[in-house]
Design goal:
The chain has 505 residues and is mainly α. It has 15 helices and no strands. The protein has helices at residues 3-48, 57-71, 74-105, 117-137, 139-146, 150-171, 177-203, 216-250, 253-289, 296-329, 337-363, 368-420, 425-433, 437-451, 459-496.
Length: 505
């Protein structure tokens, strides 16, 4: 599929996922209470660190599947996939060892109000087993992404999201809430990877994953690329999951909830925009394999422009209607979530367009620069979060994320990416930034006018405000796009007219 179709498929899937998430989060919170829900978030934050044990092989798998499928080299593709799954068996074993250690230690670290220690232990064990199982089977999802069939992967995610919703509504009770959530997570993971495996074999009929396909040279090549990506992955998880850990240990599990509300909204916004980069990654690998790097720069500039437009639109909308969204979705009493939401979204104005550049660099095999920058961001984020949480609580943690993301991405990563991807300042301005500014101006005016007439809560006014703001943003951006096309046509057509075309003889 084309990059555009993969992005659209991802957006449709994400819309369904967001609708499910919008319903599930307040339902789970209201059913099991703040104490158990805070503990569930805390367990998942710790479990998320286990993803670093993928050792960066996920992106490596996508990159090499895209490259080798474009070259039609099925033998090497099978070798790479088999070697990477062998590594995953080893990391899954390590996950189980870490899970057993966490189940033994974490419940005794502090008093978990409203949560039994035995339930905490069993929930950690189930979550850890789920992650280990999913790690081994994750190669199939990587194959779908690498062959540019993100539409199939997103369809599976939608199906599993709906199944999770049904299971949660039917099974979740206040008693044993942690155990139930963990069991649902385990069941959904098994079904998801089973479907991915079936579709991966259908997409690649010649796929053969065998342990005896192990090859030392292939493994060395995998580790050469993955070792750098692993460090970048560790840094990324430190950036995006350290906040919850810091708040949980310093302020307690209940303080995690208002921060998580703001963070959850940001994540819902992040995912569809980041999918632009996910679609660019395999395309960048294909262009690199075909030595068509001249096409990559314009593709990246347009992708960054789209990400900038969407991130800016969401930031403006959240500034005016973020509190309305929180009051309607969760209920009153979470006033701290609004500034957290705005601060974290402000950082995404820079971070999300740079995701497109990052994925393009990764697709072409350039990873070392990102590793250094991610480590800088992670160390700064941890240090500032620990410093600011003592003074400003959860808002201090949000600022601890904002400052390193904006400063380092804007003033370190962007200039380097422009050089490596052959992006000129003028091109970046014309393709990425300038076309979005009229849409931002109109959206600001529309939001200001609408915000004076909406109540403090209610889905209907929230949906109306979203429709008006989104419609204004899309209409103005589409109008500027048509003007750009007309100007381009006018500048080209005189060169092709009979009067200016050289005559033979």
């Amino acid at each position: 599929m084309s990059v555009r179709n993969n992005i659209l498929a991802g957006w449709v899937a994400h819309l369904v996922t967001v609708l499910i998430g919008f319903f599930l989060m307040p339902y789970i919170l209201g059913t099991v209470g703040e104490a158990q829900y805070g503990a569930w978030i805390f367990i998942n934050a710790i479990a998320s660190y286990s993803n670093v044990l993928y050792s960066g092989f996920g992106a490596t798998l996508v990159r090499y599947v895209a490259d080798l499928s474009a070259r039609e080299d099925q033998k090497r593709l099978n070798s790479f996939v088999s070697n990477i799954q062998l590594v995953y068996f080893g990391t899954a074993t390590l996950v189980m060892l870490c899970t057993a250690l966490a189940a033994w230690i974490v419940p005794d670290v502090k008093q978990w109000e409203g949560v039994a220690k035995w339930e905490m232990r069993y929930a950690i064990l189930i979550v850890g087993t789920t992650i280990a199982t999913g790690m081994v089977a994750s190669v199939y999802g990587g194959i779908l992404v690498g062959t540019q069939r993100l539409d199939l992967k997103r369809a599976i995610e939608v199906s599993m999201g709906i199944t999770r919703l049904v299971l949660t509504l039917v099974c979740l009770r206040e008693r044993f809430g942690l155990m139930t959530l963990a069991a649902i997570f385990f069941a959904i993971t098994l079904f998801e990877h089973g479907l991915s495996a079936c579709l991966a074999y259908r997409q690649c009929p010649g796929l053969r994953i065998r342990f005896w396909n192990y090859n030392r040279e292939t493994m060395r090549e995998c580790f050469g690329f993955s070792s750098m990506n692993a460090i970048a992955l560790i840094a990324e998880y430190m950036i995006y999951f350290t906040d919850t850990i810091v708040i949980g240990f310093v302020l307690g599990p209940k303080a995690v909830v208002p921060y998580q509300i703001g963070l959850r909204i940001v994540q819902m916004i992040q995912i569809p925009i980041a999918q632009i980069g996910e679609a660019v990654l395999p395309k960048a690998g294909e262009l690199h394999a075909k030595e068509s790097s001249s096409e990559l720069g314009p593709l990246v500039a347009r992708g960054m422009g789209l990400a900038f437009l969407l991130a800016g639109g969401f930031l403006i909308g959240a500034t005016y209607f973020g509190q309305l969204l929180i009051n309607t979705w969760i209920g009153p009493g979470y006033g701290e979530s609004y500034p957290v939401l705005v601060i974290l979204l402000g950082a995404q104005m820079v971070a999300l367009p740079m995701v497109v550049a990052r994925k393009a660099l990764l697709g072409t095999g350039q990873i070392r620069l990102q590793v250094v920058i991610d480590l800088m961001e992670a160390i700064c984020n941890l240090g500032l979060s620990l410093l600011f949480v003592s003074f400003w609580g959860i808002m201090g943690v949000a600022w601890g994320t904002f400052v390193p993301l904006v400063v380092i991405e804007l003033f370190v990563l962007l200039p380097c990416a422009m050089k490596l991807l052959h992006l000129r300042v003028r091109s970046l301005w014309k393709e990425t930034i300038a076309p979005q500014l009229p849409a931002f101006a109109v959206l600001l005016v529309a939001c200001d006018l609408v915000s004076r007439r909406v109540p403090e809560t209610g889905w209907l006014p929230l949906m109306a405000a979203t429709a008006i703001g989104g419609g204004a943003l899309v209409a103005v951006r589409y109008g500027t796009h048509l003007l750009e096309k007309r100007d381009l046509t006018a500048s080209v057509s005189p060169m092709n007219s009979p009067e200016t075309t050289p005559q033979a003889g």
